[in-house]
Amino acid sequence: MASLRDIRKRIKSVKSTRQITKAMKMVSAAKLRKAQEAIMSARPYAQTLEALINELVSRVEPGTVNHPLLTERPVKKVEVLLVTSDRGLAGGFNANVSKQAWRYLKDEGSKMEQHFVTTMGKKGGDYLRARGFSIRKDWPGVTSKITYDTSTEIANEAAKRFLDGQVDAVYLAYNEFISAISQKVTFVRLLPFETGKKVEGVTKIDFKYEPNAQAVLNALVPQALNVRIFRALLESAASEHGARMSAMENATKNAGEMISSLTLFYNRTRQAAITKELMEIVSGAEALK
Amino acid sequence: MAGKLKVEVVSPSRRLVNQEADEVIAPGADGLFGVRPGHTPYLALLQAGPLTINDGGTSKKFFVAGGFAEAGPDHVRVLAEQAEPLEGIDLAAAKKRLDDAQKKLDALSPTTPEHAAQAARVKVEARRVEVAEKR
User: Fold this and answer.
1) Cα of B29 to nearest chain A Cα, Å
2) Are residues A266 and A170 part of one domain?
3) Chain A residues closer than 8 Å to B42 by CB
4) Is the complex ipTM more than 0.90?
5) Which residues pair with B53 in a beta bridge?
6) Which residue on chain B is closest to A226 by alpha carbon?
7) What is the pLDDT of residue A254?
8) pLDDT tens-digit profile of A138-161?
9) Which of A57-71, A123-137, A256-270, B9-23 has the highest mean pLDDT?
10) Chain A interface, mutation test: which of B35, B43, B45, most A Cβ atoms within 10 Å?
């Protein structure tokens, strides 16, 4: 049976764990707010850009412009970009999205001639490596400090590999931010780039272009690609903090429950010891009579 | 022509302008162009340069670099990779950035693709200084 001192020690340790999880929760809450603001302020640009591409594609005479990043070809080589976090302790955050990527690689990727994995955030790489996949490239530190420049770099590399024929399709796996307590694993095709479909029967006046439609499209498509990656990184960051916040909230609650049950057990044990001692004294006195 | 233009200026990290205005002058790929209400649908690439928004007697100026401007009869949307209010540019800092960019450029061999990218960056920085000096 555990001695009183052991139980006391145990309570103390659980209490300090609770302190830590509580602090982590607060930190995540603060970071979440920041990440959410970042998403909000990036949204207008992303939305307008996508709208612009769709407008262009729907207005321009079919067949007059094209872009190599929009061209589909038979998919023999595929690449998956996996966005996770550098740190764990965020519930199912990393595992869910990694599992999605892993499943795709296992089911679809193995049928292809070649498949590649590029990771952002350490955890996804760890997950896939443990399951026997090699990571072609890791972008270290991009998930902790998200800038438009780094996402441009990532997008450029992906686009270059696509254009050089090293891959025929690129997929992006990340956690989409729904709310502070919920994230959605998202797995989308990044390249060839998909634009909105042309609506039949609706003819809009075509734009006048400066310098010309092709040049504008040439500039628009890579931008839109950057923005998608930029947004995925932002969404993932916000999701990470949200997931960590609720994981830590749960941990704090569980620690609290554990403390109260341990305290109950401690008091009961102490009372039992007192009762036992009393009995001994009483029976000792009784015997002397 | 009655009415006003709905003007939006957004960069990847934030929305700088969301207002109504009488006239917008933007640095298109082929030179500055002005938009007033009733403009024909227009989609232009932007080069680095000054963006002016005139509304009544007031005017706001920005420095924009890279991106697009879409104009219609009742709106203008400017998507700039970089955008900042002109009065917010610190001339000394801008000059220093130009110097740094130039030094980086000189260190690169002229045949690499990095050289071209860096040269474009130098051009943007030079334009920023130029526009800021003229304000």
Assistant:
1) 6
2) no
3) 207-210
4) no
5) B24, B60
6) B12
7) 96
8) 888 888 888 888 888 899 899 899
9) A256-270
10) B43
Q: What is the C-alpha to C-alpha distance for residues B71 and B69, in angstroms, rounded to an integer?
A: 6
Do A49 and A176 fall within a single domain?
yes
**Residue B15 to residue A41, Cβ atoms within 8 A:** yes
pLDDT, tens only, B80-99: 888 888 887 887 888 888 88
Query: What pLDDT, on a 0 to 100 scale, did the predictor assign at position A272?
Result: 93
What is the pTM (predicted TM-score) of this model?
0.83
The fold of the B5-87 domain, in CATH, is: ATP Synthase; domain 1 (2.60.15)
Contact A189, A110 (CB under 8 A): no
Q: Where are the domains positioned within chain B?
A: 5-87, 89-134
DSSP element (H, E) containing B17: strand B14-21
The whole-number pLDDT of residue A241 equals 93
Can you give the pLDDT at residue A62? 67
Please tell me the distance in Å from A239's CA to the nearest CA on chain B: 19
Give the strands of the sheet with A182-191, arranged side by side.
A137-139, A114-120, A77-83, A169-179, A182-191
Of B13, B68, B79, the CB nearest to A148: B13
Instruction: Return the residue of A nearest to B77 by Cα.
Output: A48
**Do A206 and A265 share a domain, yes or no?**
no
Min Cα distance A41 → chain B (Å) is 5
A204 and A225: one domain?
yes
Q: Among B15, B44, B68, select the one facing A44 at the smallest CB separation.
A: B15
A101 and A216: one domain? yes
Same domain, A224 and A259: no
Instruction: Provide the residue range defining the domain that includes A140.
Output: 27-245
Q: Is residue A287 part of a domain?
A: no
A122 and A208 in a single domain? The answer is yes
Q: How far is B30 from chain A (nearest CA, A)?
A: 7
Kindly state the average pLDDT of the residues A101-106. 90
| Pair A136, A123: CB distance under 8 Å | no
**φ and ψ at residue A6, rounded to 5 degrees:** -60, -45
The count of domains in chain A is 2
